Amino acid sequence: MLFSEAWPDIGGQYRSAEVDAFAPIGDLPPHHEQVEAEMHMFDQELRARTDGPPPSAAEAVSLAIWAHMELVRIHPFQEGNGKTGRLLMNAIIMRYVTGPTRELNIPASDRTRYQRCVQEYRQGRLEAFEAFMADLLEALAEHDARHQTIFARLRGLRR
User: Can you give the pLDDT at residue 33?
Assistant: First the structure.
């Protein structure tokens, strides 16, 4: 499993105890006895949303946002939920939007904003994370455009 080396006692297993990951906002993930059923419903919904023709880029980003936030909401593992959610989000974005060579990173400097977005999602509001993702994708596009400019200059030097 993904984190079995980092956490050999708990990696790859659903949590068997309660966690207080969202205690500061007075909200808790589902009870550990509900995790398996929640993950089954999540899996079914994710499969339904990815079965059929590929979504547009905008739909894919919305799907990635939903999948990430829903996994974090369920908080199925004792450790590594955020990392797993971001990995899933990146997999969806790479599959439908950027291709396999681009990874969307959440900079450490944006951790507080990211945590606020998670809190808002847990309260039923997705807009903050959608705006956050739009900012990250825009920064990725700007970064790629800068690299294209540099590569074009380098190609010009070879001639």
Answer: 96
